[in-house]
Amino acid sequence: MMGITWIIEGDIKGYFDNIDHKIMAKIVQERLNPDRTLMGLIWKFLRAGYIEEREFKHSILGVPQGGILSPILSNLYLTLFDEYIDELKKEYEKLPISTRNPEYRKVEWKIGNLKDKLTRPKKRTEEEINSIKEQIVKNSILLRTLPSAIRIGTKIHYVRYADD
User: Is the pLDDT of residue 7 over 70?
Assistant: First the structure.
């Protein structure tokens, strides 16, 4: 992966267990605009509770693990985050990623001038010619050590997936 400076991986620990029901209901209402019956079923699904060590526990947070709607609701919940990242990407895409290195350009220009000196119809001694050639070699070596461009911007690639 050439040119990649950062890779950030994140994991939302206990994501399914900590989804806020009220926020989830608000998102469902705004995005899907379900009728009252469907919204009632979604609320029942969210509040169904669970059994732990033979005891029924009420659920006030989270979506049921393994529930058929859980992945859909979880993705819907993270859609706002995805949209935020998309806006961030658009902002960064407006900016240039790199620009030519001015130091590199100066050395290039210097090499070009030295080569021009060799081709101009002026009588030069062998010592002058060798000196110019030596300077060309020295600057060419220097040129190889300099980056031709300077990174000034960022490009964002975003991938979200669920593994639980």
Answer: yes
